[in-house]
Each structure stands twice: as structure tokens, then as C-alpha cells.
Specification:
By secondary structure, the protein is mostly helical. It has a domain of 89 residues: Orthogonal Bundle (Arc Repressor Mutant, subunit A), CATH 1.10.10.10. It is 65% helix and 10% strand. It has six helices and three strands; from the N terminus they run ααβααββαα. A hairpin with a 7-residue loop joins strand 2 and strand 3.
Length: 133
Amino acid sequence: MSIRGPHQGREVQAESGLSTADYGILVHLAEVPEGRLRVLELAKAVEWETSRMSHHINRMATRGPAVREDCPTDARVAFVAVTPTGREARAMTAPRHVEAVRRLFIDPLTPAALAMLAQTSDHIIERLQKDYP
């Protein structure tokens, strides 16, 4: 889940140098053991067009949190990999992101509303797992 509010985004960027788009990309890269994905896979994961992803990765590469890597076996394929700088920035940003999600989406709910949300979410997940195994 990503918080796209302007205030939270500005706070995160001021503290870490990461835009909300950068943070989302780094989160996806951190979820895979190798810390890298094909450009096409990453674009699909964040629901972007491949060209947008390519341009964004080029900008991230100049700043340092991610790099583009060529595939040694297929010249048509490129990977996006998180760098140590990117790992550090993501780790620094994650607690603030979690705090914002809690403050905006969990704290306003009563215990009864939170229980209802959990139950509703469970039903949706069950349905999705059944329809898309």
C-alpha cells in the first residue's frame, strides 16, 4: 500500500530523497530475494507503462537508489536492481510510511469497525484466491 497524499509524500522526500514513486519501486525490488526484476515485470507490478518505467529508472540511476543492468543471456532484456543506497533509503523511509498508514487508515477506526474491516478483507481475499488460484 502506498500513501500518495501530497503532505506525506513531501515529508518522505524531504527526509529520504525518495519520491513516492521511488519508494514504491524500491518496495517491489525489496520483495524479491535477488533485489532485481526485469523492467517489464516491475512496470506491471506498479501498473506503469514500460516507457514510463524506463524513464523513471534512468532518473533513479543518476541519483543512486537503483540501477539498470543488462541481461547477460538476452540483449533485449534489462533488469532494475536496488543499490545499497536504495536499500538504506527504503529502510529509513519504511517506518515513516508505516506510521502514516496507521495514522490515516487504522487509528480512525473503532475496534468494531476494525474487526469488520478485517472480516470483509478476509472474505475478499478468500474470493480472490478461489477465482485466481
